[in-house]
Amino acid sequence: MNEKKDNKLKTWLEILIVSVRLGLTSFGGPIAHLGYFHEEYIRRRKWMDEKSYADLVALCQFLPGPASSQVGIGIGVMRGGVLGGIISFLGFTLPSVVALIIFATFLHTFGIEDAGWISGLKIVAVVVVAHAVLGMAKKLTPDLQRKAIALFALVVTLLWQTAYTQIGAILIAGIVSFYLYRQETIQEEQSEAHFPISRCLGYSCLTLFFGLLIFLPILRNLTSIEWIAFFDSFYRSGSLVFGGGHVVLPLLEQEFVPTGWLNEQEFLAGYGAAQAVPGPLFTFAAYIGAVINGWKGGLLAMFAIFLPAFLLTLGTLPFWDALRSNPKIKGALMGVNASVVGILISALYHPIWTSSVLTPIDLVLAAILFSMLVYWKLPPWTIVVTGAAGGLLTSYI
Known about the structure:
mainly alpha; globular; Chromate transporter; Chr_Tranpt_l_chain
């Protein structure tokens, strides 16, 4: 019994250490985060096989909320149960939350979003995503049909960039693939991941998610308690966002600037700081909460905006685990996974490449970092440090 308990503690500690390191070094937005996760969890530690990772990414693209945070929660749950998911989430999220609360508490504006080392970190994101795309494409698009599906997802998500385009591309890919492979037997890599969550817990989480979404606005209108209105604004913003962290910004601005809880200048200063810190962009909520009500407001805002993502992830994983092992669903999932590859390539170009590689020097730095990661196989943290240093040096050239 003690040995089993010690093993659990070691697993939770390992999850904490790895997720904190990712939280300190994962720059570049949600798609870049998926690249970092792929490098650390799949390639290096092999906590999850390629197919299960792609399945999990596809699921989280369907769900509203911060996709990269939800993927991190899912990996933590698979590795260490529900507590493992909580630890994985906290480790990945708290570094940027703390940084933004400190920023909101002590400073009004840094202007660091234009600093040279930030430009270097953006180039690191290009390299990490490119490496992840190459690895996933090799395994998830082995035949012409799935290459065509990936190309379709790439074209659609590049030409029509809306919050629902990714979901539509994944859905169409799943339907097409279901019919393409319904009568064929294809040797697929077997999924080894298992999410230790009961269906009872899944139902409870989904019920709580919809219950809060429906009743918080009612309770807000019936009472004049400020923290309920505060919680409701962040919870609804986190519940209704498809397409990543950038989509939540106009929702948050609409909720808090016109109401006078913070002014436009404070909002924009925080947005600049959020771009300059690692981790999920949803942590911008912690800055807003800290401006309104100090560090307590920052922590409450973080809890409120991420709670929907947590409830949806825990609520759907038990059923997803059963669905993806169903032979009738496997054909559809092969197309879904191929579409994820196309979506990642699309995101690699825009916004990651277009906002990062602006000069020949930027391309030179990207090539050096890519060689360090892919050919010399150096650990990701050395790529991050080298990228930051390189960006700082090139800013003086």
